[in-house]
Structures are given as C-alpha cells and as structure tokens.
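Your task
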Amino acid sequence: MADKPLIIGHRGASAIAPENTIAAFRLALAAGADGVEFDVRLTRDGIPVVIHDDNLKRTGSLPQTVASLSLAELKQVDVGSWFNRTQKRSTSDFSGEKIPTLEEVFELFESTDAVLYLEMKSDAIQRDQLAAVCCESLRERSFKVRVIVECFDLTGLEAVKRIDPEIKTAALFDFPQLPSWLVHSGRRMIQQALAAGADEIALHQRLASQQVVETAKAAGLKVVVWTVDDKVWVKRAQSCGIDALITNDPGLMILERSRMRTV
C-alpha cells in the first residue's frame, strides 16, 4: 500500500523542467512521485494534447491559440526554451521540448503504476467533445483504474460520468469569492462535487481547512490539495487525512514524506 499522502507532480516536476512535457513527467517519476497531474485541450483537428494555457504566448512565444492549430502545427512549437530563459534553478537544456499528445503521455506511463490526474480544460464549446475523447482514450488504454479526470467545469465532469460512470472524477475548486462561513465549512463545494458525481474533491490549499477536509471525507470524497510546495503540508496531510498533494516539486515532498516515516 502506498504511503500517504500521495505525492503528485503538478504538470510533472514543473519546478525543474518545463511544465506538461515528457521531460517534466520523466523527472517526476525519477523523483519518486506517485503520479502526475496534467492538462488536456483539443487541437483544431480534435486531437487531445497536454498543455495548460489556451494559447502559446507563455510557453511557446507565439500568439496563436491551441484550438486554432492542427496537431502537426503544434508539434513544430518549442515549449522548452522559455523554461531555460526564466528558471535559473535548472542547469539542463530543455530546448526543443514539444507539446505531447495525450496518447504519448499514456504511452510513457503504460509500464508504471503511476496515478494520473487528467485535468480537462473544458469550455462550453468543446466540453462534450473533450469529455468523449478523453473517455475513449482511457478505454483504449485500460487506464480507468488509475486515472482521475478533474475539472473546474463540473458540467464537464457530469459529461464524463454520463459516458462512463466507472471513470473516477475530481471536482476542482479554486479559492473563491464566497462568504467566509461558506469557505470555512466547505458546504457548498462539497454539495456541488457530490451533485456532479465526483469521487474526489481537489481543493486550492487556502480552502483545505481541517473542517472542510473532515466534512468532505465524511461525505465519501477523497481529498486532494493543490498546489503545495511547502513540506509542512506533508505532516498536515497526514494529520487530517488528505489523500494526495499536488506539487511543483515532488522530489522535495517525497523526501519529507520519507523523513516523516522514520521519525
């Protein structure tokens, strides 16, 4: 049985490699991460690719949107050089890293038992198509047992459950502009997650109070917290029952979890 909490690399080991690239995923595995989280969008020709932003300005230094380009066009984009320029901590050269397809990411993890958090970057236009494509990819790979589909758009999660109720889903919540008593209790978030048929709730760290975690667990939801790079979260997670931590620096968090085990 895996140690708790599970340590999940946010877009791979994105503290030391360009996010959502094969290099970042490999480094997360090398650090001992229990799995990775990544983002999926559709190209103009309907292929699921792994990238966070809806455009290429930040990671590809281009003005185009992902949805406006074909897979062949996206495969020409260098999404590694930006990291070389901006991240002084890294001594590696990531020039030439490409945007991976969902299929390529699944191939990388085929021979592992890694847990995969697949975030659908859903909008009203592509919601149903993206859900259908992701579900089909999971069925083809027989990955359903270890992939959790997550989304801020809870309607997207409902679409996944309609296609295949066996696919596990996680309702994502960012720090909201809500009355303090609602944030403290988490009641609305938990009700919304359950209404969407979610199996897990993925909370921004500012939402993950002990009361919210305990209430979610009592409702039958696993609890994931993102994005945490402070190792104090390992002890906090163990004390209040958080199931998984999503982090940019899985190596740091794995070391802290190992240290806690020996204390």
About this structure: The longest helix spans residues 127-141. The chain is about 40% helix and 20% strand.
